[in-house]
Design goal:
Elements: E1 2-9, H1 15-23, H2 27-35, E2 38-46, E3 51-58, H3 71-80, E4 95-96
Antiparallel strand pairs: 1-3, 1-4, 2-3
């Protein structure tokens, strides 16, 4: 099993809407995440800096499965783009957080 962590960034004034949209996460997106091997996915918000810290536990995905190319994922990115710092393709700007300690 793989664990990975990363951070993203919200735009000012968007925290509540970000929560609302995740409270109503699309069932088809949840299914796609599961197909990609995601077993756990947590997102935490640092309200002072508007940084989002995400943590995932993953098992191997089906061979050839490309989460970032899936149309549902791309629609979700577009749905969230007005709330977050994003790349040109509307994917969230993601900064990997390497593991430095485990208990």
């Amino acid at each position: 099993m793989e664990a990975k962590a990363f951070r993203m960034k919200l735009k000012p004034g968007c925290a509540e809407e970000y929560r609302k949209r995740h409270d109503a996460i699309w069932p088809e997106l949840v299914e796609i995440l599961r197909q990609s091997g995601v077993i756990e996915y947590h997102i935490f918000l640092d309200e002072e800096t508007l940084s989002l810290f995400a943590f995932q536990k993953k098992s191997p995905a089906e061979p050839g499965f490309q989460l970032t190319q899936h149309p549902v994922v791309r629609r979700w990115w577009a749905h969230m783009a007005d709330l977050m710092e994003v790349n040109d393709d509307l994917s969230p700007v993601v900064v990997a957080c390497p593991e430095v300690f485990r208990l």
